[in-house]
Amino acid sequence: MDVTNGQYLKSWLLFFLVGTVGGTVFGMMVGGALGALLGMAGAPLLAVPPVVASVEFPLCIFVSFLAFRWSVRTYIVGPALGNVGHQTSA
């Protein structure tokens, strides 16, 4: 079965939404916890944002990758292989 432009659009849109919302929520949780730990450890206030950002960025990229992999597997690879409704381990 050929993959249509509509399926690509659906895959991209869901990847964008899940990656953005998931990355934001995950980043807020990690950033809040890490900021609190640094604050309790006595780190200067100006040192907290760069440390939190340098930890959050790679973690949010990982969340984005997981959302991309899920989206492509579900809406592109599955229909292209004819495995609609069957989850395959990647």
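the 2nd protein, sequnce then structure:
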Amino acid sequence: MTMTEIKSAMSLLPHKANGHVKRFPLLLREGILGLVKEQGRKRVRSELGIAASTMFAWEYRGRRRKRSRFQRVSVVPEVQVESSRFVVEGPCGVRICGLSMVGLAQLIREVGHEF
């Protein structure tokens, strides 16, 4: 897009009370950023009256969108881990950690009458 084309497109857009364009369509933004690459940011900003912060935001969004939103993952076989581990705390600070369900049942059978 040329500077003249961009100016005429901007004149057709809705404006705020302060005279600035409310919202630039994506194609127009891309045209303006293309012009920035050709003529330089400072010249385009001054000629079109676009704030530096606005132009920075457009450039940042463009860089951010180029990155993939997906991340590469790999699927591996499930590792079987015995997740039913118990901790038994007894009187006087006695603590038995890592008992399986079978071990816990056996402990209860052996000393169950004391509980």
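Residues 44 and 74 are 46 Å apart (CA to CA). The longest strand covers residues 95-99.
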